[in-house]
Amino acid sequence: MKSYLEVILVLYVQEKRTALGLPGTQPALVIFDEFKGQLTDKILMQLEENNIFYVVVPANYTDRLQPLDVSVNRPAKEFLHSKFGEWYAEKVAMQMKDAGSMTPINLKLSEMKPIGARWMMELYDYFKAKPEIIINGFKAAGILNILKS
What we know:
It is a single chain. The protein has helices spanning 4-19, 41-49, 62-65, 67-71, 73-97, 109-129, 131-140, 143-148, and strands at 28-32, 52-56. With 149 residues, it is mostly helical. The chain folds into 2 domains: 4-56, no CATH class; 67-144, no CATH class. It has a two-stranded parallel ribbon. α2 (41-49) links the parallel β1 (28-32) and β2 (52-56). The longest helix has 25 residues, at 73-97. The chain starts with a helix and ends with a helix.
């Protein structure tokens, strides 16, 4: 079985290099937290073989140094909380119109999975329409400045 590194990370970096017209040896950067399972000798060797550099964000610093923690997580949570609030309020309003049908709102996984999937697709569209949110995370973490120098 191929590893996450081979199937996803290395392949993604290779595709991005090609899409950007960069040579296959163009250095790339991956950011890890301190989880030791991703820093094995085998993984580090595969990164090196593919000219992918890595940095490790120290414990308790991801909120300042991981680009998505800096910029994406908060608006994503707010977006999803808002979607849930709107959905729940709509369900309550529907029950209030028909006063005889006051029943607990179904929050079972079977009910919420397709709704949550739809919200995740809407969240993707939200960030796609606002790329500056993601870019600002890389700027705030100091990564764009490093890559430009």
